[in-house]
Amino acid sequence: MGGGRHIVYRLKRGKELLIPIDLDVYLLKDTDSRNFTYERFNFELINNLADLFSIEELDLFEFGKNKLQDKFKSLDKTFDTILNKTDSFKEITIADIRSVHNELIKNLDITSGIRESGVGITGTKYVPLDNKWQIEEALSKLVGHVQNVTIVPEKALIFLALISYLQPFTDGNKRTSRLVSNAVLLANGYFPLSYRSVDEVEYKKALILFYEQNNIYHLKRIFLQQQQFAIDNYF
Length: 235
Hints:
The protein is mainly alpha-helical. The chain has 10 helices and no strands.
């Protein structure tokens, strides 16, 4: 792929997931000039999301899990919905995702339910699905895939990335993805992530890279950093 400030990123399909990419270099070019691997929703991506963590990375989550037992009282109140229905969130369903979204948009002027029209995302030419039935199909495929994943942090990371990628609702998709991801962690005894120390611009850059190249490297990096942040600040 070359080097230096003029590096051009265009990854081989199916090999994109965990290759380290310099975010700032990738986003040097404006939206119209970047080389997209995927400009539209990639259904194949769902089944490619597997074996995302090393043993050493998973050890971090196990360390947090072992420290968590009597710390629930210090959690952010937004986690109450999950804590009250822990068993339900051990295996996430489409109904659970919609329930989390409904809770997040309560008293806000945001339409609930699966969106029925297209949506644009600032800063990228990536175009999510615009057909309600295709969105529901993709959501069903996502839930089915995650049910077959045995590693809990991997389940949580997949929901974090794919709900944002799919954009199933008219608004509140990133918040829904974060809370569903945390629901998976909490329901299975792992510490949730607060994202309090995350730079929002960096997070959006990581999402844009995922949208355009299906590269999850930086989302995973932020995910791991936030688990470390939770451990350092809650214990």
